[in-house]
Amino acid sequence: MPRAGLNPDAVVDHALALIDEDGPDALTLAAVAARAGVAAPRSTSTCRADWPDCAA
Length: 56
Fold this sequence. Notes:
This protein is mostly helical. The protein has one domain. Helix 1 crosses helix 2. The model has no long low-confidence stretch (mean pLDDT 82). Helices cover 41% and strands 0% of the residues. It is built from two helices and no strands.
């Protein structure tokens, strides 16, 4: 569920502003999240060798 005030258009606006100000190399999920005032998502999944989509 999206946070109040944070929708896809807002995320794109933050990303574009970041690129305009700092260049395309500055575009990361963490940077956009910081700019939006939210925490960047963390990966909570783990990969096991017996899972078909995981590299051994």
